[in-house]
Amino acid sequence: MNRLILCLLFLISLQTKVYAQSWTDSEFRQANTARNADYLTNEEKNIILYMNLIRIDGEKFYNTFLQDYITNYNEKVRKYRNYNDLKLIKTNPYYLSLLKQIKVKNLPLFYPDEQLTSLSRAHAIDLNKNNLDTHESSNGLKFSQRLAKYFPNKPMSENIDFGYSNSLDIVCHLLLDCGVPSLGHRLNLLDQKYKLNTVGVSIQRHPSYTWCAVIDFVAQPKLALSRIP
Which segments constitute the SCP domain (predicted)? Predict the structure, then answer.
């Protein structure tokens, strides 16, 4: 490995550390609502951590972890002939629109739920088994029908991400929401309208995209959240 590449890797590593240091230990502890959820993998717990950091200080997330994601993403796609089409640049309309929407601070946090995670996991496994890429299950049920059985009469939504197994990649990909005019995934992460506060998360293999991640959201009464350790 030549000296230039080593220097670039060092600078990227240093940049990541500087960004991480801009967040306080208190903020990380506050965001880590899934720390005791033993039914989640570490990456699944970290999805909730990063989503909560966005809600604690969206603009800080934009200027720190999102920049890490963009730098790493652009390095990964550099090897492709259509790199100029694939790379994320600061004039990207989704990048620009996000800056306007992400200026949120101290929003209510997301908390994990074991039952909801079971539903997320079942759908992710279904997507893998049947090579699907939709919110609709192989048996024809919509996500709202799947969730309403256990969470009746509650506001709910669902994000699905394909191609990533890393928590930061998954969250940033959904946050940018490139190519999704409705910005539905982004709006779920920044939700204030429906008071979504409970999440289920599952990362599974996928035959066409290598990985898929299902994140289900439900609005629960505060009393239900108070029982979460």
Answer: 103-209
